[in-house]
Amino acid sequence: MSLKEELVKFCHKVYDKGYVSGFDGNLSVRLNENKILITRSGVNKGNVTEKDILTIDNNGNLIEGNGKVTTEAKLHLKVYNNRTEIKSVIHCHPVYSTAIASSRDEFPNDVFPEVILTLGKIPICKYATPSTAGLADSLEPFVKYANVFLLSNHGAVAVGESLELAYYRMEKLEHVSKTLFVAESMGKLKKLSGKEINELYSIAEETYGIKVDKRIRL
Ligand SMILES: [Zn+2]
After folding, report:
1. Which of 52, 59, 114, 141 is surrounded by the most beta carbons within 10 Å?
2. Distance of CA 121 from the midpoint of ligand 1 (Å)
């Protein structure tokens, strides 16, 4: 499967999962050092075909394809231009994650051990007007290390070393956000203590060889 075909597949997947509605969201994958495949503006992700995928350079200029480059490309470029290891960026408006981003200043991610290890610290970026450079700049404090970002009053971004990994991170983020909502509706959240979290990091390293980057530790 070509990268373009893979990108189309994940567009359909985020739509089927309900992570986007209308023309929301945009997905991209890095083709090489200076070429990125990205969904065009104004297309429903459930209807994306290879014709809706544009090729842009690291400055956001259109190289190949027909259609308008999404204004949210700036968000994708912010990540690619700061992280050489990142190969894919997915931006969606999933209900539960977006609800947390619109009601909280901090994400309560000291609850589920496996989320602490896989997603790490989940930053909520300061509100910025969609489509502006300010939105891309809101990622700045966390762009060098975060796996996922919440955008205040807007949505979520997941990044990964592959399309699949970026997608799984988006899926995990929405899943944990939904679980938190249900848990909080049932009672007070039982958070893990600093001691329990430190023990988790040690066990993960000793038993599974999972070394969590210090910058995404809680
Ligand atoms: Zn958006």
Report:
1. 52
2. 21
Kindly report the CA angle at 48 between 149 and 159, in degrees rounded to 5? 20
Domain 3-216 CATH superfamily = Class II aldolase/adducin N-terminal domain (3.40.225.10)
CB 121 within 8 A of CB 143: no
Phi/psi class of residue 107: alpha, beta or left (left: φ > 0; alpha: ψ in -120 to 50)?
beta
**Tokens standing for 132?**
């502006």
H or E element that contains 92: strand 88-92
Cα 215 to middle of ligand 1, angstroms: 26
pTM of the model: 0.96
What are 141-177's pLDDT values in tens digits? 999 999 999 999 999 999 999 999 999 999 999 999 9
Q: Which two tokens stand for residue 8?
A: 């189309």
Per-domain boundaries in the chain: 3-216
Report the candidate in 49, 52, 55, 50 with the shortest Cα–Cα distance to residue 37: 55
The torsion angle over the Cα atoms of residues 124, 129, 134 and 136, rounded to 10 degrees, is 60
Is pLDDT at 10 greater than 90 in this prediction? yes
**Ligand 1 centroid to residue 203 C-alpha, Å:** 37
Please give the pLDDT value at position 156.
Answer: 98
| Cα–ligand 1 centroid distance for 19 (angstroms) | 11
Active site residues: 72
